[in-house]
Amino acid sequence: LQNAELGKRAPRWIRDNEVTMCMKCKEPFNALTRRRHHCRACGHVVCWKCSDYKAHLEYDGNKLNKVCKDCYHVITGCTDSEEKKKKGILEIESAEVSGNSVICSFLQYMEKSKPWQKAWCVIPKQEAVVLYMYGAPQDVKALATIPLLGYTVDDTPRSADLPHSFKLTQSKSVHSFAADNEELKQKWLKVIHLAVKGETPECQNE
């Protein structure tokens, strides 16, 4: 259906067995976790996350129907940024951000005098000056975000630090990170050196 017709007439439903993945976020359906839902506006088969929207559809007597994110935006005229505000910055899912990131990997992280802990760190393409930290790659909520702009990078580890570590400092806040090897550390530094100046880095996720 063309955008103008969305919700005005019933769509052709794509059959469940015609797809193996969500037609919006491309998340594969599997027997266990991914229930299939139909968008009542465009007829596409989508996962639960992408069908978590409702809009009034004209062809169904203006009743509220489950629709996919794209149709929701078209029909209601609501934009993504309003959507994101509702979600809150930390609730951007790791998989979503990692899949579209400049760089992502596990790093050891230490704050002040707390012990080192492992964190899944991501710098997303659309916000290449923010470092997101998750407990694990599939987590749906970040533990913390660090806006990198204006931080100073110190990449010489002290004897007490882990070997491939570097620090980010800004006035009183100090964040220490350590990579598993020197190559990974250099990849991160390449991105972070640009991010702290507000420049958009090249993608390192090759």
From TrEMBL:
<keyword id="KW-0677">Repeat</keyword>
<dbReference type="GO" id="GO:0005085">
    <property type="term" value="F:guanyl-nucleotide exchange factor activity"/>
</dbReference>
<dbReference type="GO" id="GO:0007010">
    <property type="term" value="P:cytoskeleton organization"/>
</dbReference>
<feature type="domain" description="FYVE-type">
    <location>
        <begin position="16"/>
        <end position="76"/>
    </location>
</feature>
<keyword id="KW-0597">Phosphoprotein</keyword>
<dbReference type="GO" id="GO:0046847">
    <property type="term" value="P:filopodium assembly"/>
</dbReference>
<dbReference type="InterPro" id="IPR035941">
    <property type="entry name" value="FGD1-4_PH2"/>
</dbReference>
<keyword id="KW-0863">Zinc-finger</keyword>
<keyword id="KW-0344">Guanine-nucleotide releasing factor</keyword>
<dbReference type="InterPro" id="IPR000315">
    <property type="entry name" value="Znf_B-box"/>
</dbReference>
<dbReference type="Pfam" id="PF00169">
    <property type="entry name" value="PH"/>
</dbReference>
<keyword id="KW-0206">Cytoskeleton</keyword>
<feature type="domain" description="B box-type">
    <location>
        <begin position="17"/>
        <end position="67"/>
    </location>
</feature>
<dbReference type="InterPro" id="IPR013083">
    <property type="entry name" value="Znf_RING/FYVE/PHD"/>
</dbReference>
<dbReference type="GO" id="GO:0005737">
    <property type="term" value="C:cytoplasm"/>
</dbReference>
<keyword id="KW-0862">Zinc</keyword>
<dbReference type="InterPro" id="IPR017455">
    <property type="entry name" value="Znf_FYVE-rel"/>
</dbReference>
<keyword id="KW-0963">Cytoplasm</keyword>
<dbReference type="GO" id="GO:0008270">
    <property type="term" value="F:zinc ion binding"/>
</dbReference>
<dbReference type="InterPro" id="IPR051092">
    <property type="entry name" value="FYVE_RhoGEF_PH"/>
</dbReference>
<keyword id="KW-0479">Metal-binding</keyword>
<protein>
    <submittedName>
        <fullName>FGD4 protein</fullName>
    </submittedName>
</protein>
<feature type="domain" description="PH">
    <location>
        <begin position="100"/>
        <end position="197"/>
    </location>
</feature>
<dbReference type="InterPro" id="IPR000306">
    <property type="entry name" value="Znf_FYVE"/>
</dbReference>
<dbReference type="GO" id="GO:0005856">
    <property type="term" value="C:cytoskeleton"/>
</dbReference>
<dbReference type="Pfam" id="PF01363">
    <property type="entry name" value="FYVE"/>
</dbReference>
<dbReference type="InterPro" id="IPR001849">
    <property type="entry name" value="PH_domain"/>
</dbReference>
<dbReference type="InterPro" id="IPR011993">
    <property type="entry name" value="PH-like_dom_sf"/>
</dbReference>
